[in-house]
Design a protein that fits this description.
The chain is of the alpha+beta class and 683 residues long. It has 24 helices and 22 strands. A 7-stranded mixed beta sheet has the order 10-22-21-20-11-18-19, sandwiched between helices. The protein has a 6-stranded antiparallel beta sheet with strand order 2-1-3-9-4-7, with no helix packed on it. A hairpin with a 2-residue loop joins strand 16 and strand 17. The radius of gyration is 33 Å and the shape is elongated.
């Protein structure tokens, strides 16, 4: 199998013209269109027909030297051998010396021997050799196309047309004509044509192509949607915020395909030394000819020396790993990062937005004076109904999840940073900080009931009705439900050091660390302190991965050996500030990434072993004439196929994770707040 694809020759011409003279150029990029593959495949089939006809005539008439059989075999050998020889000539014209020349020499030697009458059935042998070399090339190219198609299928989901809403009604336009500010209508079952914000309607969206999430996500007016995601229910109108290549999907596609084109250091080393490989094989062939005088052995040596299995070892595994990662919403920008992740032995996490949700959530309901928990929640959430404060949103969310109906507040008034006042069911309600209630004349005896420490990150709001405190609510930035499991998975995979750094107060950081099982934490860190900490860990010999939200953690992400940005969907900063981006916020992707990288490294090593064994073993067998040129050509194809199929195992990695994630995602995001049981809320 030639090093530079016969079938992608035209696409590689530009790259090769940039190569300096005499340097070997190796490129397994098969990014050609379908038409390029049709002609060689048709040639192969046509040549095969003439070749089979030759064998049939020989067998039927039992006459090895039949002129009709020889003529048919010669035509078949010319058709099959022409693209191989022409590729070698093109290489030489560009000043390149590649293993294509080895295959061409083998075919020409077999053909010349037959023409000179040195080999009985020589044309048949030349044709069979050329056929197997072309078949190997076609299989390799089709496999590469399939691997790329598996990536494209994950990210090429933007519909060709969209329904744009105008003053005169609805019109169907090509997606590429959409502009920022346009309003599009998306019906149930449609894929979204551009990133945007929902103006009206509600629906459930399958976001697996962007975030890797298994379960649909419910969206309402004001929520962001991404191009390429599927609307499962409801008709919506969406205002376009990003279109075309600027969408999240467009940027993901661009980065994934760019990653496929990058190379590992080992691949660059192979490229460098392959320029010396062909002359070495030619010398070996000359020695075999000098000691044996057997042209058949020389031809077999040239064929088995083509190191395609060796060269395919890394690219085939990397494309498969990229595909598996993309399926779970892990965006890897450079294939070198896959190899690097296998050597990571320390993780440094940012706290807010990474190990925690970054949003306030109710963690405690503490009713007083015989008030029911559900009643306390109803009064507090109703009074805060028109507030945009994070605490108000947390109360509204919990009330919605618990099915607590809210009352309509009257005479609503808000004192910024202090609290709100409103009339609920004819009673005057105040919700806010303790001092706010005292200022409204509420007795301060309610402070005795507080048993939470605000220095550990709890935010307390108090609720008063008709001049008396009826309870208080504790809120906090809650830890992600999967954080403990993810950190345990990293430790199980051999990560030796896990630390958390935060700009928050040390008691807050310590509480979060206890909840997630992180043994090392550092609070009150400025951005520069975070960078210094990462450098200190690296100075002790660790290979460090830094995990952050990609917005305010860019310096720390850049300081680590590997920077991983969380929740990159829709965030340009997150996508570009890290070497790896998780398109959703599920921390369980991190242990999977480490496992995938180590499995990829193992597969690459196996592939190299297969390639080396086939080349060295084949050379010995060919030189000893244990195998003839035809068997050598078959072995060449078998070796390449073994490498490709071994690499293909990586594509399926992570499949067992998807049902697991779906089950976990269906569970409540956190345990019910203390003092608040579902039965009590609905009562």
């Amino acid at each position: 199998m030639q090093v530079t694809s016969l079938l992608s020759r035209r696409d590689d011409e530009h790259d090769e013209s940039c190569a300096s003279g005499g340097h070997h150029h190796h490129d397994h990029d098969h990014g050609h269109d379908h038409d390029h593959a049709v002609l060689p495949l048709a040639q192969t089939l046509a040549g095969l027909v003439f070749l089979i006809n030759s064998f049939v005539i020989t067998w039927f008439f039992a006459e090895p030297g039949n002129p009709i059989a020889s003529g048919s075999a010669m035509i078949g050998a010319i058709i099959l051998g022409y693209p191989i020889v022409w590729t070698a000539i093109e290489d030489l014209r560009r000043g390149l010396l590649t293993t294509n020349e080895l295959v061409a020499l083998a075919v020409l030697a077999a053909f010349g021997s037959a023409a000179a009458g040195l080999m009985v059935g020589g044309f048949q042998q030349a044709g069979v050799i050329a056929f197997f070399m072309l078949m190997g090339q076609i299989i390799e190219t089709r496999t590469a196309e399939g691997a790329r198609a598996s990536i494209e299928s994950l990210i090429k989901l933007t519909p060709p047309k969209a329904r744009r809403v105008t003053a005169s009604g609805e019109e169907e336009v090509e997606t590429k004509l959409l502009a920022v500010g346009d309003v599009i209508r998306v019906r149930p079952g449609d894929n979204v044509a551009a990133d945007g914000v929902i103006l009206s309607g509600q629906g459930s969206f399958n976001q697996a192509t962007i975030t890797g999430e298994s379960l649909p996500v419910d969206k309402k007016p004001g929520d962001e949607v991404f191009a390429g995601t599927q609307n499962l229910t409801g008709a919506l109108e969406i205002k376009v915020t990003r279109a075309g290549e600027d969408t999240t999907l467009g940027k993901v596609r661009e980065l994934i395909l760019a990653a496929e084109r990058t190379k590992l250091p080992i691949m660059r080393i192979i490229d460098h030394y392959m320029g010396f490989y062909t002359p070495l094989v030619l010398v070996i062939g000359a020695l075999v000819w000098a000691f044996t005088g057997d042209l058949s052995r020389v031809i077999a040596v040239f064929i088995v020396s083509c190191p395609c299995a060796f060269i395919l070892a890394t690219p085939s595994a990397m494309v498969a790993a990229l595909s598996a990662a993309a399926r779970l919403g892990i965006l890897i920008k450079n294939v070198g990062d896959i190899e690097l992740a296998a050597r990571i032995n320390a993780f440094v996490f940012d706290k807010t937005g990474t190990l925690t949700t970054g949003k306030l959530a109710v963690s405690r309901l503490a009713p007083l004076g015989g008030t029911a928990p559900a009643e306390l929640l109803r009064i507090a959430a109703s009074a805060e109904k028109y507030s945009n404060h994070p605490a108000a949103k947390a109360l509204a969310q919990l009330a919605g999840e618990a099915g607590v109906p809210l009352a309509e507040p009257k005479d609503f008034a808000e004192a910024a940073g202090r609290g709100v006042g409103a009339s609920i069911d004819g009673a005057k309600i105040f919700v806010g900080r303790a001092q706010w209630l005292k200022d409204q004349g509420v007795p301060d005896d309610f402070l005795k009931s507080v048993d939470l420490n605000e220095t550990e990150g709890f935010s307390l709001i108090f609720v008063a009705r008709a001049g008396r405190c009826i309870g208080w609510v504790g809120l906090q930035d809650q830890t992600r439900s999967e954080a403990r499991e993810a950190l345990a998975g990293l430790k199980a995979s051999g990560v030796r050091r896990i630390a958390m750094i935060s700009g928050d107060r040390q008691p807050v950081a310590a509480r979060v660390a206890r909840e997630i099982g992180c043994e090392e934490c550092l609070g009150e860190c400025l951005p520069q302190n975070k960078v210094d900490f990462v450098r200190q860990v690296k100075a002790k010999g660790y290979r460090v991965a830094v995990v952050g939200d990609g917005v305010n953690d860019a310096p720390a992400l850049a300081a680590g050996d590997l920077g991983i940005a969380m929740g990159a969907a829709g965030s340009e900063v997150a996508i570009h500030s890290a070497t790896i981006a998780l398109m959703n916020n599920d921390l369980r992707r991190l242990p999977f990434l480490v496992r995938l990288s180590r499995q990829t490294r193992s597969v690459i090593n196996q592939n190299f072993l297969i390639g080396i064994l086939f080349v060295i073993g084949g050379l010995i067998l060919a030189a000893l004439k244990i195998i003839d040129p035809i068997i050598a050509a078959i072995l060449h194809v078998v070796g390449s196929l073994m490498v490709v199929f071994n690499s293909a195992r990586l594509v399926r990695q992570g499949e067992e994770l998807e049902p697991h994630l779906a089950t976990a995602a269906s569970e409540p995001p956190s345990s019910p707040p203390a003092g608040l049981k579902p039965a009590a809320v609905s009562a």
